[in-house]
Amino acid sequence: MRNIVYQVYPKSFQDTNGDGIGDLRGVIEKLDYIASLHADTIWLCPIFASPMVDNGYDISDYKAIAPEFGTMADLEELIAKAKTRGIGILLDLVLNHTSDRHAWFQEALRDQASPYREYYIFRKGQNGAPPNNWRSNFGGSAWEQDTATGEYYLHTFAKEQPDLNWENPKLRKELCDMICWWLEKGVAGFRIDAISFIKKDLNFPSLPPDASDGLANPGSHWLVHEGIGTFLAQLCDEAFRPYGAYTVAEANGLCADQLPEFIGENGYFSAAFDFSYTDIDLAGGDWHTLHPINRKTLRDAIFASQEAVCRTGHGAVYLENHDQNRSPNKYLQPQEICRESITMLGVLYFFLQGTAFVYQGQELGACNFPWQRMEQFNDVSTHDQYARAVSAGFTPERAFAIVAHRSRDNARIPMAWTAETNGGFSACAPWLPADGVLPCPQQAQTAQVQDGENTSVLHFYREMGALRAGRYANLFYEGTFEPLTCESSALFAYRRALAEDALVVVCNFSAQAQETVLPAGDILLCNVPCTPHHSGGRIVLAPFQALVLAE
Ligand code: NOJ
Ligand code: CA
Predict the structure, then answer these.
(1) Interhelix angle 169-184/228-235, nearest 10 degrees
(2) In this prediction, what percent of the chain has a pLDDT beyond 90?
């Protein structure tokens, strides 16, 4: 059972050699901090050799460590030291694409007759144009021309991230061998990147344009495309299952009736992330069409997701990751952001069924960064979203405001450890301009300050971790989930049960006091001062109060 996973974005976690870039030794230094949150697992975002066009999601060597992050010896030390604290390491497996600097792709470009040409997806163009009008996830055509031959290669993401050709059995075998090699090194498993995209519609049809650029989102022509199961079954049978690896898939595009095949008892993965509630503001898929979040829609999405997962397997519940903006800014109005509302959001998702993920800084209540200009952003996709918003007719000011709110770089700002220069993250200027400002000056305080205050967000996350990891660990991981109906639409409530035990979780998602009825029981956790026992019947919940009660 993986109960609590702490996600580390190594580049922004802790720099130990003063180059402004977080590194593996930084993660080793902070192992006790991570253990204090009761995490039993760390998900490390990619640490492999990479030119870092997409911060490591463009791998140039699957078996080498990026020098800016450290060495293989550092990783081995991290695996060993984490293990002594009962913590397993998940690596981030990027299997849909490599970097264009990977030796396979370089060889494919150098020699059209090379077997490595078949490791990628090359096609002839049409009348001087790409093979079709598919749009890449990072904007522009999904095809880039290989100038030496005139052919085009497919890239679901940036042009520096050519897609691998999963139709090729040699490539599949090579990837399976590489995964086994890592499992032999003692990693506990993997978070698996963009795995829904590995199977393409080999007819590569052009599609009706869906925007003024004449391009179209290929949708199911490359997302969970028919036949993907054969590839996934091989990965599972030849690599994951023999080692009992824990695997959590970034598998967007799954519908509820596909869950058994993906995460059921004999599914390909241990769990899969669901985007239905974390991308709820994206509705149309684009940042520049952001939708306000309606509380009822949010609750329905979270609860529907849980009910579907519980019928099938185990969830991978999360509020934040390195691709999301900070949750207080996403789910709360600016005037609502405070310690109580931030911890309420924590309670809301943390006790759902399955494994709970915490993204670095979330436990400090970190908020979005106060961006001032486009040049401050590093993220390739943020720059694309800005350009697309402007070409869709938004003023530069409005386009900037949109990306400042939704940019992935909000989550990538270096950790605020102490009040020293650069938040104690690094002795020199960090890779992402943070101007030495804490992520959320009004609400978040450094980890050092929060460590010493028993009313801090950090302290509350430790309490949540202790509760989830304690005697109710099995209940939280695999107990039943039942949504509870309350009179007020501001209340999110659910019941978790396993054998003789039952817990009720209630969150007041509003700045007003709310009344409801609760069964009698001990209050195991509460984010505001409250009595340790409720004798049953009516209770008035303070603004943003959240509690867990044992029936
Ligand atoms: C999903 C990752 O989480 C994201 O950061 C990355 O840009 C894309 N996949 C491409 O690998
Ligand atoms: Ca460093």
Answers:
(1) 30
(2) 89
Q: What gap in Å lies between CA 446 and CA 348, rounded to an integer?
A: 24
Chain centre distance of CA 127: 40
- DSSP character for 167? T
Kindly state if the Cβ of 94 falls inside 6 Å of ligand 1.
yes
- CA 478/CA 370 separation, integer angstroms: 40
Task: State which amino acid sits at residue 517.
Answer: V
Which ligand has the shortest distance to the CA of 192?
Answer: 1
| Tens-place pLDDT, residues 194-220 | 999 999 999 999 999 998 889 999 999
Encode pLDDT of 15-51 as tens digits: 999 999 999 999 999 999 999 999 999 999 999 999 9
Mean pLDDT of all residues in 279-286: 77
Pocket perturbation via mutation, ligand 1, pick of 53, 59, 93, 193 by most ligand atoms within 8 A of CB: 193
Residue 379 beta carbon below 6 angstroms from any ligand 1 atom: no
Record the pTM: 0.97
Q: Alpha-carbon distance 134 to 266, whole Å?
A: 34
**Rounded to whole angstroms, how far apart are CA atoms 322 and 407?**
10
Q: What is the 3-state secondary structure (H, E, C) of 479-516?
A: CEEEEECCCCCCEEEEEEEECCEEEEEEEECCCCCEEE
